[in-house]
From TrEMBL:
<feature type="binding site">
    <location>
        <position position="101"/>
    </location>
    <ligand>
        <name>Mg(2+)</name>
    </ligand>
</feature>
<keyword id="KW-0238">DNA-binding</keyword>
<dbReference type="Pfam" id="PF11798">
    <property type="entry name" value="IMS_HHH"/>
</dbReference>
<keyword id="KW-0239">DNA-directed DNA polymerase</keyword>
<comment type="similarity">
    <text>Belongs to the DNA polymerase type-Y family.</text>
</comment>
<dbReference type="InterPro" id="IPR043128">
    <property type="entry name" value="Rev_trsase/Diguanyl_cyclase"/>
</dbReference>
<dbReference type="Pfam" id="PF00817">
    <property type="entry name" value="IMS"/>
</dbReference>
<feature type="domain" description="UmuC">
    <location>
        <begin position="7"/>
        <end position="183"/>
    </location>
</feature>
<dbReference type="InterPro" id="IPR001126">
    <property type="entry name" value="UmuC"/>
</dbReference>
<keyword id="KW-0548">Nucleotidyltransferase</keyword>
<dbReference type="InterPro" id="IPR017961">
    <property type="entry name" value="DNA_pol_Y-fam_little_finger"/>
</dbReference>
<keyword id="KW-0808">Transferase</keyword>
<keyword id="KW-0479">Metal-binding</keyword>
<keyword id="KW-0515">Mutator protein</keyword>
<keyword id="KW-0235">DNA replication</keyword>
<feature type="site" description="Substrate discrimination">
    <location>
        <position position="16"/>
    </location>
</feature>
<feature type="active site">
    <location>
        <position position="102"/>
    </location>
</feature>
Length: 398
């Protein structure tokens, strides 16, 4: 037997929508959509009617006209996430967070004090339900990849253990879309080649998969299809970048709207930098046009920074340079990544040290938001605007 199933992948179910149903009993059992212009999350009642994340609000309401549409409450979701992650870390010190609502946990060393991995998973789910009021699905397997697939298969509100001697029987019949890294484009390419299941991909030679899908993608997916995933749960790795993006739907957006959304994204990310004692050196603008083609534009700073005003200025410059293409092709998604992260306390300040108004303003605003909440103070441009424009932080990415 190749090791033991000791990796847990824990994933909260329909997270944003579940928090809304938890906090508002009248929404329980009803289809709930979070976000008006674009669907940020949908309850399982809405998903059963065909509503999906990132779908346009109009299409979602046509599919589910009796859905209750609520604006996002990022503070509530962040608080729920903190409560759940506290339970994760109380379960085991070996926790690798993937996003606001999911994590890997290594529990192989807990057998003598806490029981088998399955028993640990059962208690974890019970605690999240009792202490936070949310349903969470858990997959247990020998590798991170299989644990993640198992949690997805077990949804909603499930627990699935894949023992090493059942790995092939579990994985090979599944559709190729279950492989970590297979998106719509890759899935369509595989289907055109007559490859619909993981088992069919596993039957290919690695060189053939690389030739059909590209060297890196082909090697990665072929390895997963053949149950090769040596990555341990990593509790020490620092993220190389943080990012947030917002789907915009298909309607035209004015330059003022895009500037507002961009400013909100950068404002939140810059605060994340300061909260984590980090600075960034590169600002990356991510765009998806009306024809769904994606582009990135970036600028590297002369010295690392966590200054909101500076990062907003750089992001605006990148957006301004892209405006002619946006006007011609339309835009359906905008995002910002802050990369080449470093520790703020390891940066040698330039002389003369800049103690200007921007630094003081950032410090004051952070203190106000820490005490009174993230929405307690806003930029003047945001006053009177739809709170749904506030871009949700998506999972950190490298």
């Amino acid at each position: 037997m190749r090791g033991e199933a000791t990796v847990l992948h824990a994933d909260l179910d329909a997270f944003y929508a579940s928090v809304e149903q938890r906090d508002k009993p009248t929404l329980r059992g009803r289809p709930v959509i979070v976000g008006g212009g674009v669907v940020l999350a949908a309850s399982y009642e809405a998903k059963a009617r065909g509503v999906r994340t990132a779908m346009g609000g109009r299409q979602a309401r046509e599919l589910c006209p009796d859905a209750v549409v609520v604006p996002p409450r990022m503070d509530a979701y962040s608080a729920a996430s903190r409560d759940v992650f506290a339970i994760f870390r109380d379960t085991t010190p070996l926790v690798e967070g993937l996003s606001i609502d999911e994590a890997f946990l290594e529990v192989g060393g807990l057998r003598r004090i806490a029981g088998t991995p399955e028993q640990v998973a059962v208690r974890l789910r019970e605690r999240v339900r009792a202490e936070v009021g949310l349903a969470i699905s858990v997959g247990v397997a020998r590798t991170k990849f299989l644990a993640k697939v198992a949690s997805a298969v077990s949804k909603p509100d499930g627990l699935l253990v894949v023992e090493p001697d059942r790995e092939q029987a579990f994985l090979l019949p599944l559709p190729v879309e279950r492989l970590w890294g297979v998106g719509q484009v890759t899935a369509e390419k595989l289907h055109r080649l007559g490859i619909n299941t993981v088992g069919q991909l596993a039957e290919l030679e690695e060189a053939t998969a690389e030739r059909l899908l590209g060297r890196a993608t082909g090697a990665h997916l072929h390895a997963l299809a053949r149950l090769r995933d040596p990555r341990p749960v990593d509790t020490t790795r620092r993220r190389g970048s943080i990012g947030s993006q917002r789907a915009l739907g298909n309607r035209p957006r004015s330059a003022e709207e895009l500037d507002l959304i961009l400013t909100q994204i950068v404002d939140r990310l810059a605060r994340r930098l300061r909260d984590g004692g980090r600075v960034c050196r590169t600002v990356v603008l991510r765009l998806r046009f009306g024809d769904y083609a994606k582009v990135t534009r970036s600028r590297t700073l002369g010295s690392p920074s966590d200054r909101t005003a500076l990062l907003v200025q750089v992001a605006r410059g990148l957006l301004a340079a892209a405006q002619p293409e946006i006007a011609e092709r339309g835009i359906t998604l905008i995002g910002i990544s802050l990369s080449q992260l470093g520790r703020a306390d390891s940066i040698q300040p330039e002389l003369p040290i800049d103690w200007g108004d921007g630094t003081r303003l950032d410090t004051v605003l952070d203190a106000v938001r820490d005490r009174f909440g993230a929405t307690s103070v806003s930029r003047a441009a945001q006053l009177g605007r739809d709170p749904g424009l506030s871009a949700p932080l998506l999972p950190e990415h490298e």
